[in-house]
């Protein structure tokens, strides 16, 4: 393992019967960085994360996490990693403080350290006023802060976060990301799966998964510059007419509407794509401003996942429970 890599995976594969949920994925995730998994529903993000933290046994491939071979060394890794899923997985009938105390005991913190860590986390995650409130009655954002406080009680070197912000509002998401950056600044490696482009944009590195395969990887800037498409923005007085004029042409791979603008992804290598689009607009008598723009991460996502559409849906995965154990399972 290289000194800078927190996670190295080679040929990581997981099958469920005939379905290949994760298909020969290679990963090198550097320490103290925020690394994002982006992918449509069912692309294998959760399955990959569960294999990385030892909850699920790979069908094939090797995984090394913080110098430990997984899943063989899962038990030894337990104290070095924190895991948080999209589903609130603490005890709803216990108070905020009781939840933290319980988790601190699970992580084996002795009494004095337990008390000081809990006090610190309550402050850091703004939960002091909710200290004696039952977790089940917290708001979505408070629950998420509690889950992060619990996942970081033992000061893990690596945090694995599976769609942690899917149930909270934009302000809570922003706060949450502020906390992630602080953790990364202090040396924690963070792997986070998300459906949100703005979140992926904040990551130091991103892997895009599609049908179990890793289809693109790099920093947001590298991905944007390396996109296999020309991105043309069309600002039109009649957006619907502009869209109609673009439809049905082989060289137009996808069209997405953003207010009164369209983003068209064209096949790469066209000599002057703007001129070609201007011709189409003129022929359809649509007044439009046409310019070539830098690819957004959403454009990259659409191109990397086969131009299948830009809508990224959010689902709730009920399949994993971090409380149960760290024993790898074959059944998932
Ligand atoms: N325990 C399991 N048994 C059978 N199939 C499974 C199991 N867990 C996951 N799958 C399947 O593996 C594929 C990948 O699922 P996974 O949950 O990893 O995707 P995901 O990218 O995390 O999706 P989402 O964004 O919807 O949470 C899906 O087709 C899913 O139905």
TrEMBL record:
Residues 7-236 form the ABC transporter domain. CDD domains: ABC_DR_subfamily_A. The keyword ATP-binding applies. One of its GO terms (molecular function) is ATP binding. Keywords: ATP-binding, Nucleotide-binding. The keyword Nucleotide-binding applies. InterPro entries: AAA+_ATPase, ABC_transporter-like_ATP-bd, ABC_transporter-like_CS, P-loop_NTPase. Pfam families: ABC_tran (PF00005). It comes from the Bacteria. PANTHER family: ABC TRANSPORTER G FAMILY MEMBER 20 ISOFORM X1, ATP-BINDING CASSETTE, SUB-FAMILY H, MEMBER 1. This is ABC transporter ATP-binding protein. It comes from Steroidobacter denitrificans. The lineage of its organism: Bacteria, Pseudomonadati, Pseudomonadota, Gammaproteobacteria, Steroidobacterales.
């Amino acid at each position: 393992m290289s000194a800078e890599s927190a996670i190295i995976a080679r040929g990581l594969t997981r099958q469920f019967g005939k379905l290949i949920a994760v298909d020969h994925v290679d990963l090198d995730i550097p320490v103290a960085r925020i690394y994002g998994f982006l992918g449509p529903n069912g692309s294998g993000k959760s399955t990959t994360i569960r294999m990385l933290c030892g909850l699920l046994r790979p069908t094939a491939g090797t995984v090394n996490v913080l110098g430990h071979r997984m899943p063989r060394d899962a038990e030894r890794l337990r104290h070095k990693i924190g895991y948080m899923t999209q589903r609130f997985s603490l005890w709803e009938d216990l108070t905020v403080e009781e939840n933290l105390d319980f988790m601190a005991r699970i992580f084996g913190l002795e009494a004095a350290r337990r008390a000081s860590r809990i006090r610190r986390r309550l402050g850091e995650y703004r939960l002091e006023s909710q200290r004696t409130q039952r977790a089940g009655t917290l708001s979505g954002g408070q629950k998420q802060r509690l889950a992060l406080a619990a996942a970081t009680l033992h000061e893990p070197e690596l945090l694995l976060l599976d769609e942690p912000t899917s149930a909270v509002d934009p302000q809570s998401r922003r706060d949450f990301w502020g906390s992630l950056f602080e953790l990364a600044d202090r040396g924690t490696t963070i792997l986070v799966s998300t459906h949100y482009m703005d979140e992926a944009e904040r990551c130091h590195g991103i892997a895009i998964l599609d049908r179990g395969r890793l289809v693109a990887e790099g920093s947001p800037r590298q991905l944007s510059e390396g996109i296999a498409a020309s991105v043309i923005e069309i600002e039109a007085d009649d957006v619907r007419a502009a869209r109609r004029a673009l439809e049905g042409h082989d060289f137009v791979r996808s069209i997405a509407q953003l207010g009164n603008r369209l983003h068209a992804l064209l096949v790469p290598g066209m000599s002057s794509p703007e001129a070609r689009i201007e011709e189409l607009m003129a022929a359809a008598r649509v007044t439009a401003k046409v310019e070539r723009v830098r690819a957004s991460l959403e454009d990259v996502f659409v191109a990397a996942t086969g131009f299948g559409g830009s809508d990224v849906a959010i689902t709730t995965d009920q399949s994993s429970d971090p409380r149960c154990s760290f024993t790898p399972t074959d059944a998932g």
